Every structure is written in structure tokens, then in C-alpha cells.
Protein kinase domain-containing protein (Brachionus calyciflorus), 466 residues
Amino acid sequence: MEKYRMLNKKGEGTFSEVIKCQNIKDGTFWACKKMKQRYNSTDELKEIREIQALRYLSKNPYILQLHEVVFERKTGTLNLIFELMDMNLYELIKLQRNYMNIDRIAKFTYQMLRAIEHMHKFGYFHRDIKPENILVKGDLLKLADFGSCRRINTKHPYTEYISTRWYRSPECLLTDGFYSYPMDIWGAGCVLFEMITLNPLFPGSNELDQIDKIHDILGTPDQLLLEKFKKKSRTVRYNFRTKKGIGLDRYMNTFPPDGIDLVKLLCTYDPDQRITANRALKHKFFDILIKNEKENVMPDTKPRQKKSIDSSASEPVNILADLYSNQNSKAKKNFKKYNSNTSLANYKSVKAEKITKTSFSNIEDPIKLNLEQNSITNMHSLNQYSSYPPKKNYLYNNQTNSFLPKLNNKNNSSTSSNQYIQNDSPSSIRSMLSKVSNYSNGLPDIFVNTNPISNYLTDGKSLRKY
């Protein structure tokens, strides 16, 4: 830690404390997360979940970037250097004297869901979504503190008391550790409600009080859902009083209906029926961002942004462009077609010129080129290829080294031979023999039937099927 100067303490948790520090060499500011646990070797560092998870997740713009890992061997102290943000979401909510702007709430919610979607896509879930673990810097939001994250495909049961009680989902409260990634969606719904009302949704004082707070608002679930939870629990008594629930609408009567509907979908009691992060990002509530973007049209050329001295890892993110590309990607592709330096008339003329170059008049016929290179005999072979009779209608003569046609048997009433030889007169047989001699020499120009001979090959001595 000789390259960093410690300045002031930003916060403290159960397992670590966060200190603002400055790089002595270039003067940039960073956030140092100093772990309270002591480590003996670097092999132990590889087992830390937060470092493992950030190796896969830190490329997302809505997840806090890990800049450096500093391990002091003498003291066994581990320091994680992150990009520096202004404050966490809890501090921002406490600073609000009036309700937050709807547009800002939509931006923060969208970024939070994008971070959760990215985690779930790569097989992780956070397990501790709450305002204290969400950092903001201006209008930019980033998810932090991955010390409690787990792999989705790991075996149950998990730790029961993992997330903060107020943001703990029903499946965490009513089962013995049988929960999964939908608990992050429940926490996101609680955070969204807190941004809207500036108050927590379910502030329970203990585990039982937390369940009562949920039932007071959402109502007691049906017996089938409780039986499903009961199979995964040995400690919880499922003798809940039947409550109808007062609902969420009365707490958010001034908020748009689409926003209220999104909170209801995120805070669905049954985890199997709860909306996913991917589907939540397509909700109508985020149409307000596109609407505001159309009203305040931004110029095509953006001013060059100065590099912040606070952190070299923090970069501005165009949230509205990202949202617009997800919800209206087809329209965006059509817009790119005409968004060029040339005019629409110029574009049409260039397109017409491309069509002319690829027209049929400019394409040389491969059969025509082949006919010019081959003899007149091969011309018959190319033009009337589909008219060759099957070779099985001819017999090979060893003495004359030629093929003879099968003649029609007058006593046989079969129509299979009549379709190749119409009469048995000597003149017709003589003409056929002359053509058969050409056939034996590899010049097939007998065109009695429409069946091709391409399925048969000759080796000069016998007939064999291809």
C-alpha cells in the first residue's frame, strides 16, 4: 500500500471498511476496501467469492469496477482498490427533502436491473440487494459489495440469514436456505419502492415481524404456496392468520401506474411467478426515458468529456441510447441506413447502381461458356441432358463391343418396353443400332425417353448402378 495515501473513512461493514485513498503517482482518487480478516497466503485469496465474481462481472458498466488487489504478506491484510463513487443510494435517499424525480428513479431502476441481469446471465446472484450496496455518482448507478454472492447452480441449502432483513424475500424467511436468484428481484422491488416513497417497504423488527409486515401489505398466500415452502422448512410454524392485505397502491398514489405495476411484479410472493430481470427491463415504465429523450433531442456530435481525477475507471454511460437500442432495435437499424453523409436521393442512386451491376444481363451463363469450349456433340449432352433413357434398357455385346437395345416381345403385353422401342421393323432397329454405337463410345445422344442415364455408369465391359 505504499503507492496509495489513505485519506478518510467512507464507511464500515461487518467484514470490511472502506477508506478513500489517493494514488501518489498520478493523484487519482480511489476507494480502498480493507478486509478485516487476515490471510496467510495467496492461495486463500483465490477462494474469496468477491474476487472470483468480479473477474467475470466487472466488465459491465453498472457493476463497480475492481482496479487492483493489494496483499500485504507481513500483516496478512487484503486491500481491494475500487473506483470511487460519490455516495450510496441510502445516503442519497436520506438527503432528499422532497420526492425524487420520476425520470431519475427510472434511470436508477433501469441501471440496477441491468446489473442484476448481467449477474444472473453469468450464473451469479447477489443475495444482498439493498440501498447501502448500491453506489451512485451523478446519474450513474453501480452495484457493489459482492462478498455474499453465490453461484446459481450450487447445491442447496444456502445460509439462512444472509441478506439484510428488510430486503429478504419470503422464500428466505420461510425455508431453510432453499432460495435462488429470484431473491435479487425481490430486493430490487424493495429498493424501487424506497426510492419512490423515501421509506422502506417492510421494516420488520425480527423474523416473525418481517413476515407479518409482508402479509399486512401483500396478504397471506394461498395454502398451496405455503405447503410448497413447508416442505423445505423444519423450524417455521405455518399457522399464519389469513389477511387480505392493504396493497401497494395506497403508498404510491402519486406515482405513475406503470411504476406501481413494476413494483408489484418485482415483489411477487411466489418466487416461481416473480418476473425476471430481463423481462423487467422491457416494462412500459421505462418508456418515460425514451419519451424524455425525444423531447430533449441531443445533437449527434457529443462534446469531449474531461477525464475525472476521482477515478480512471469511471466512465459516463449513455443509458438512454442503451435502452432505446433494446426496445426499438429495428427502428434503429433503419435509421442507420439513411444517417450518412449523402442525401436520400444519393442513397437511392447508389442502390440502383448496385442493382444494375448485379442484373441478369451482366451475368455470364455458365452453360453458354461451357458450350463454346466443348464440341457440338457435347452440346447435345448439355441441352438435352434430361432426355437420356435409363441404361438398363440396353444389353452389352462382347463380340461387337457395343450396346444393343432390348427389343419388344410381341407376346409380352408389358408397357415398360413399349415406351422405349415403338416398333420392331428392321429400319428402326438399324437406326437404333447406329445410335447405340455412339452411346457405347461415351456420346449419349439417344433421346427416346425422358428418364436420365446419370444414375448409371459404364466401365466398357458391364453395366453397374452408380
Notes: The chain has three domains: 4-84, 87-295, 366-465.
